[in-house]
Structures are given as structure tokens and as C-alpha cells.
Amino acid sequence: MSYLPRIVLGALASASLFITVPASAQAPATPAIPRANLGVYPPWQDGRNNDAEQRGLEFTVPEVDNLADFHGNPVQPMLVLFVGGNYFFAMAPLVAAFEARYPEYQGRLYWETLPPGLLVKQIKAEGTITVGNMTWTVKPDVYLAGLAAVKTQVGAGILTGPAVPYVTNTLTIMVPKGNPAHISSLTDLGKPGVMLAMPNPAFEGVARQIKASLAKAGGDALDTLVYQTKVADGTTLLTQIHHRQTPLWLMEGKVQAAVTWQSEAMFQEQAGHPIASVAIPEAQNTTAIYAGAMVTDAPHPVAARRWLDFIRSPEALKVFQRYGFTPYTPSVTKAVE
């Protein structure tokens, strides 16, 4: 499937119409300007992660005008979801299943898929956010992230409990197709000269799980090497939004390896992108629990409760399982929430 926006496809189609002129009147041929491979730029789902029924002018230019993690219409939505971004690819089928159960919400959901720490900052800013030259305000009904993050915000009064856990996930090493750096384990990430992308611990919750796995594989020394020494010498690049930057940097050749959720690697491979993964042994891996809770003073509390009930339903769990998530059970005791 092509990931070129329809406006670009239309322009290409129009360019195929031409008028024949005499050879003497034709301008000298000039070399074509190389174009970036737009297929590597997000958004990667050809508009499917947008619940708005009336979209007006479609204008997405991946290199310069591209709001990949904001979905739907923020004007008078009936349900607003702030979702930790590492399952952005599952949201479109989840929303479709939710709307099949509750048709009155059809085309009226808005959701954001940013790192959980950034979503908390937006909540504290009364729902206001600025991207480039655009500022808008939308107050969330539900916050979905790691269980520990949800419990923390319940304790802070930002969310209203209880926390509702629903699925678990594990880590993998994401590499470019062909694995040119020959990464075979977490310890290989500490090799000099291997360029890494790593989530920023300041606001990307997955960094906590990654650091735990690094310590299991190589002790505190490996954690320090990857997250301090290599950051200082420029061979670890910290992301601001790992679920977008990590695969993009790998496809662009900017980095050679990264640690992500295995569901993210599965999505990239399913999308046909030149991405592969290296399994992390169970003894070194870390399991995370995903959970949600209603935002205090949620504008749409009935819809919020319906979503939190739905997210644990067989329909929702079937969507998650497409990407390797496992339904949560209370027996999951070794997880780093």
C-alpha cells in the first residue's frame, strides 16, 4: 500500500497530462530533483487513525506538515482518549470495535498518542498543546499508560481510580532489515560505535523497563554505558517520541539498533517497512502492564466508563493480540509496571 497522501497522488496524476510542442521549442532537459522516500515518514496508516467523518481539505506533507499523533476532530468530541503512544497502530481497529458496540459515538472520538509523561504535562496545562504554529485545547476523558504511571496520577488526583489493567507487553531489539550491525543481544548495544536510539527517561515510561532489562543482561555497567557513556559520546540518541523517531531513524540509517516493545516491531514489519527484530531472552526481558483510568472532572464520564469497560472486552483483546499483546491476568507478578 502506498503511503503517499491523496493530494500528492492527485498532483502526480495531473502531471501526466501534457501538450506536445515542437522539439525546437522544448526547454533543455534538467536532472530530476531526488525525492525522499515518503513511505518511511509517519503517519504510516494512510489516514485510518482518524475518526473524523468530515475531513475537508486533505493536506499532509510528511516532511513538513504532519501531525501523526493527533487523531480525529478536537471540536466537540464525545470521547477524548490520551493514550501512551506505543500502540498507536492498534487504535483505529479499537475505535472501530468500540463504535460498533456504541454507534452513537460514530465519528466523534478524538485521541492523542504521545509518551505518557507528555500527556500528563498536557493535562496539567488544561488540555492545551502547541505543535508548530497551531495551538488547541481538548480536555481528556481517559488516560491510558503503564499501570505504575496510572496509579501515580490517581494518587496525585489527576485521575480518578481505580486503575484498570488490560494487557501486557514485552521488549525486543529493533534493527534495520538485514541487521547490518549484527546485533544479537542486549550486550551488543554497549559496543563502541554502534549507534542507538533510546527513549528519554524524563518522560517516556518504557525507558524504565529498558533499563531494567539492560541491568539483567549486563548489570548496572551496561545500563550506565548505554544511557550515560554513549549519550555523552553521541552514540546513543535520546528520543522525544520513541514510537515515531525510533523506526524512522532506523530506516533513515541514522541509528543501528534500539529497544522497543515487541508489538511496535511487529507493526512495522506488518506495514512492510524495512525493519526487523532481535528477540530478548525471557530471563533478560521485562513485562509491562497497560492500564487506564478516568481523568478527574472528565467532560464525558459515561463515555469514559464505557471505554474502560470495553478495553478489557474480547473484541478489544482480539485487536491487541494481532500485535503480540497478552491479556492481563492478576498472575502477572514479575512485571515492571
Please outline what is shown here:
This is ABC transporter substrate-binding protein. Residues 1-25 form the signal peptide. This protein has 337 residues and is an alpha/beta fold.
Keywords:
single chain, 337 residues, alpha/beta, D-Maltodextrin-Binding Protein, domain 2, five-stranded mixed β-sheet, 9 helices, 14 strands, 20% strand, globular, disordered N terminus, signal, ModA/WtpA, transmembrane
Describe the structure.
- The chain has 337 residues and is an alpha/beta fold.
- The protein has two domains: 44-167 and 290-327, D-Maltodextrin-Binding Protein, domain 2 (3-Layer(aba) Sandwich), CATH 3.40.190; 171-279, D-Maltodextrin-Binding Protein, domain 2 (3-Layer(aba) Sandwich).
- It has helices spanning 6-15, 88-101, 116-124, 147-155, 206-233, 242-252, 262-270, 301-310, 314-321, and strands at residues 70-71, 79-83, 109-112, 128-131, 134-137, 142-146, 159-169, 171-176, 196-199, 236-239, 257-261, 275-279, 288-295, 326-327.
- A seven-stranded mixed β-sheet has the order 1-3-2-6-13-7-14. It has a five-stranded mixed β-sheet with strand order 10-9-11-8-12, sandwiched between helices. Strands 4-5 form a two-stranded antiparallel ribbon.
- Helix 2 links the parallel strand 2 (79-83) and strand 3.
- The longest helix has 28 residues, at 206-233.
- Residues 1-36 have low confidence and may be disordered.
